[in-house]
Write a structure and sequence with these properties.
- By secondary structure, the chain is of the alpha/beta class.
- It is built from seven helices and five strands; from the N terminus they run αααβαβαβαββα.
């Protein structure tokens, strides 16, 4: 009886279809959007600028350094040139009474321009570049000498004897006549002195009818 039931059960299993196993699909969930990775990326590893930003910044810094160097070079050049440093080769420095007599008073062949100045004088420093340019303009003129006399404690009697009222001041000496002109040599007065000097070198000066004194009929100085 038992054997008969077992055989019938086996026959039933072999003849009935067996359902195939289908696994259930897993539940899919969308990932949550979070700013944590971006936050840490910005704080720990900041974004690197583009190559163009690098080059622009480097160019700006390079130009800034170059401008600073140019300004320093101009400042140094201006100081060397305009403050009693490098002076024209034709300019002689005289500081004693004996040298002044030998170089200026005893000169018998050339005109002599004398400039009295002081190293502490602001007007003297301001007029030095224009005066040096005037000397360089006439450096090839063999009939003209240029002399400077600084104000010192030792040559104070020389300035007093020549009655120098202020500095910068100028004298013009003729080789045979002596002192012929006394002028101020501040920067505004240098163009006038240049005209006076050129008129002596040329041996004439421009005159017009408007420069005749109506009372005396004598020409007045155009300067």
């Amino acid at each position: 009886m038992v054997a008969t039931q077992l055989c019938m059960a086996l026959l039933f299993c072999s003849t009935s279809p067996v359902a195939s196993f289908q696994p259930l699909p897993l539940a899919t969930t969308k990932p949550r959007r979070t700013t944590a990775p971006v936050f840490y990326a910005n704080t720990v590893d900041p974004p690197t600028p583009a190559p163009e930003q690098h080059s622009n910044f480097e160019d700006q810094m390079r130009q800034l350094v170059q401008r600073q160097q140019q300004l320093e070079q101009r400042r140094e050049k201006k100081q060397r040139r305009h403050v009693f440093g490098q002076r024209p080769a034709a300019l002689q420095q005289v500081s004693t009474v004996a040298d002044y007599k030998g170089v200026v008073v005893d000169e018998a062949t050339a005109w002599t321009v004398v400039r009295f100045y002081a190293t502490s004088c602001r007007s003297c420093r301001a007029a030095t570049p224009a005066f040096d340019a005037l000397v360089e303009r006439h450096q090839n003129c063999h009939m003209l000498n240029w002399v400077e006399v600084p104000v010192t404690r030792d040559n104070a009697p020389l300035h007093q004897a020549l009655q120098i009222p202020s500095v910068p001041y100028g004298h013009l000496y003729h080789p045979h006549v002596g002192l012929v002109e006394e002028v101020r040599l501040t920067r505004p007065h240098l163009p006038r002195f240049q005209k006076i000097l050129q008129s002596y070198l040329d041996g004439s000066c421009p005159l017009s009818d408007q420069q005749i004194d109506p009372d005396t009929g004598i020409y007045t100085s155009p300067y």
